[in-house]
Amino acid sequence: MADPTLTRALPLPGKKTTIQNCLRDARDALFTDFSNGSVKEAFQERYSEIIDDYFSSSLKESKTGQYLFKNRHPFALVAVGGYGRRDLCMYSDIDILVLFGKNIPPNAKSLVEELFYPLWDLGLEVGYGIRSVEDCISLGHTDYKVLTSLMDARFVCGDLPVYLDMTALLKQRVMDRESEKLIRWLQERNAMRMINFGDASHLLEPNLKEGIGGIRDYNHILWMAKALFNAWSLKELAQLGKLSYQESEELTRVVGFISNARNHLHQVSNRKNDRMGFTFQEEIAKRLGYKKYGKTPAVEQFLEDLHSSMESIKILHRSFLYGHAVKRAPRKIQVVLDDIRQGLHLHHDEIAFNSARVILDDPSILMRIFEISAKYNLTLTMDARRFTHEFLTLIDDRFRGSEKIFNSFLYILNGPHAVEVLDQMFDTGFLDTYIPEFGRVRGRVQFDAYHIYPVGRHMLEAVSYLKNISQEKNILLANTFNEIKNKEALLLAALFHDIGKTGKGHSKRGAKIARGILDRVGYPAEATKEIVFLIENHLFLAKTASRRDLNDEKIIIQSARIIGTIERLNSLLLLTWADSKATGPGVWNDWTANLVQELYFKVFHILERGELATPDASHKIDRLKRQVRRLTADTLSLKEFEFYFEAMPQRYKLNTPAAEIVHHIEIVKGLKLRQEKEENPFMFEFRENSLGGYWEVCFVAKDRPGLFSDIAGIMALNSINILSANIYTWQDGTAVDIFYITKPLDEINPEETWCRINRDFGMKVTGRLSL
Length: 771
What we know:
With about 775 residues, the chain is of the alpha+beta class. The protein folds into four domains: about 5-175, Beta Polymerase, domain 2 (2-Layer Sandwich); about 180-325, Up-down Bundle (Four Helix Bundle (Hemerythrin (Met), subunit A)), CATH 1.20.120.330; about 335-610, cca-adding enzyme, domain 2 (Orthogonal Bundle); about 635-765, Alpha-Beta Plaits (2-Layer Sandwich). Helix content is about 60%, strand content about 10%. A five-stranded mixed sheet has the order 1-4-3-2-5. It has a four-stranded antiparallel sheet with strand order 9-10-12-11, sandwiched between helices. Strands 6-7-8 form a three-stranded mixed sheet. Helix 10 runs parallel beside helix 14. The radius of gyration is 34 Å and the shape is elongated. The two termini are about 45 Å apart. Residues about 5-15 have low confidence and may be disordered.
C-alpha cells in the first residue's frame, strides 16, 4: 500500500543519460525475457534490483548527494510500499523515501531533481517523499496508510544508520504500542475493500490487487506478522507456529501464481491494471501455457486456478486477521454442556477442538463442530479451521455414507445459520471433501458475461437467497416459500442444481449425480425423487417463459402436465429465482420476473383445479354453458353468446363462476365499443375482498407481448404487490387478467391509487410512460 503522502514527480528534461540508458536497457531486456517466458519466477525481485541499481549508481554521481554527505546532512534512500517489499510489478508505482536523520536541508529538492526526473523521462510512475526520521514516526502514529508503507521500508543506498534509526523508533514508539489499533484499522479496510472491489475469489473479473483474496490480503498478513510477532517473512511465521509449514508453502505458491498473472495483465494492458477483465483473460491463459482440455477451454481452466489461488489467500487472511484480532467481551451464550463436552470447547465466542487427538479418535467430530456452530451461531477458531483442513483425509467413504452424519448436515442446512456455516465448510475445504461431487465443480467457471461466480460459490449463493427470502420485497416469493411443505428438498436442490456442470446437458447429469449422493446416505426415495425432478427441471420455467408463446393454451397445459403438482411448481419458481439472482446482476430483471410469473400463475390455476384433463371437465363446461346462457338470454343473441363462449379458453371456463363470466362478457363488449373509437383501449375494474384482506383487479385489453409485464410494472410503480393472478387470453385476442393484490398504501382513499394506475397505463399504451 503506497504511502499517500508521497509526491508524484513532475516531468523535466532528462539527466544522467548514461545511467538512464542502462536502466532502460535492463528494464526492456527483463520485460522481453518475461514476455517470451524465460523469466517465470522472481520477476518482481529482479525488477526491484534493477531500480535499486539505478538509485545506487545515480546517488554516486549526484553532486547534491555528495554535498549533503560532506556537510553532515546524512540521508538514506528507502524503498517503501510494493517497491520496499521487492514486489514491483511491471507497471507498478516506484515509491521511495528520501530520509534525513534530523532536519531537512533546503537543497533536498535538488537531490530529487537529480535522482527522479530521469525516471519520469522513461515514463515511469515515481512517488517520493522527503522526510526526517521524526516526521516518519509522527505520521506513523496518525496515518496507518503511512505506517504500513513504512513497515515495508527497505534500505536501498545512502547512510544506513539513518534507516536503522527510523525502523527501530518506528517499532518502539508505534508498532509495539499500536498493534491493536492497527489490526482494527486493517479490519475496517478489509470491509471497505469488500464494498469497493468485492470478493475477488468469486468474481469472474477479479481485482488481483485490492479484491478480497488478492495481493492486498497477503500484505495484511505480513503487516500483522510484523506488528504482532516481529516476524518478517512467512518462514518466520511458520517457525513461530502462527502458520503451518503447509500453509506457508501454499501461500507462497498462490501469491506467486497471482503475481505472475498480474504481470502478464500489466504487459497485455500496456499499463498499470489490476482488474482481470474478460478482454484479457484468453490471452493471459495462452501466455501462461493453458490449453484446451477435452471440452474445457483454456481460459476456463486458468480462471479456475486463479479463483482457487485467491480463495486460498482469502481463507488464510480471514483466519489470520480475525484469529489474532482483539477479542471483545464474550456474548452470553447458553450452551448445553453435553453438546461440547466431547472433544470441543468454547473460546470467547468461537468453538474449538480440544486437540488434534480428538479428531483422530473420532473423525465424525469434523461434522459435529459445524453442527454446534449452526446451533449456537458460533464461528470456528483459526486453529479449528486449520485442524479441519489438515484432517480432511479422514473423511472416507464410510464417513460420506453415514446417515447420522448426513442428518447433522441436514440440521445445518435447515437451520437459521446455514449460510454462515456452509461458508465455513466451503472455506476449509470440508464441503468439497464430504461431497466430492461438489468439489469437482467448485471452481468451474463459465466464460461468459452472465455468471459472476464459479459454480461452487454460485450454488451456495442460490441457497443464501432462499434462506434470506423473507427480506425480499416481492411478497409472492416470500409467501410461496412459506407454503412449501418440504423446504429441505428445495434447499438440497439449490445446493446441487449445477453439480452436473461439466459440459452440455448439465441438468440431467446433475440430477443423476444428486441421486447418487442421496442414495449414498440413505435419503428417503420419495424425497429424492422430488429433488431429482427439481434439479433436472431447474431451467424449465425460465426457458419456457422466454422461448414459448404463453398465450398458447397447449403450452400451459403441457407445462402443467410436466410439473404435476403445486408443490413442485412453487419450488421451481423459487429455484428459478434463486438461480437467476445467484448468476449475476440483471439476470433476474423485471422482464424475466414478469414472464416467469405469468407462466407460474397460468400453470398454478390448472394444477389448483386439476380438472382440465379429466373426463369430468367436458361435463362441467356443458353445465357452465347452460348457466351462462340463462343469465345472458336477455342481453345476448344466441349468435353473440356462441361467439363469446367459444372464444373463452377451457382453463378460464373451469376456473370462473358463471356470474363472473357474464360480468366479464359485459366488460369485453365495452372494450369492443371503445376499439371503434380509440387506439389501444383497455378496461380496468377493481373491488375489495374485505374477508380475504386483499383487492381484486380485472384488466381487459387487446393482448400483446409484454402486456402482463406492463401491468405488473405499473402495479409496482404504485407500490402494489401482486399476490396471485389469473391470466387468460381469449381466442379473439382479448386478454382478461384477474389480479389479487395487496391493499393500497392509502386505505382511506384507495380510489386515488386506482386513478393513478388507470392514468399510468393510459400513458404507457400511448408511449408517454417508460418502465
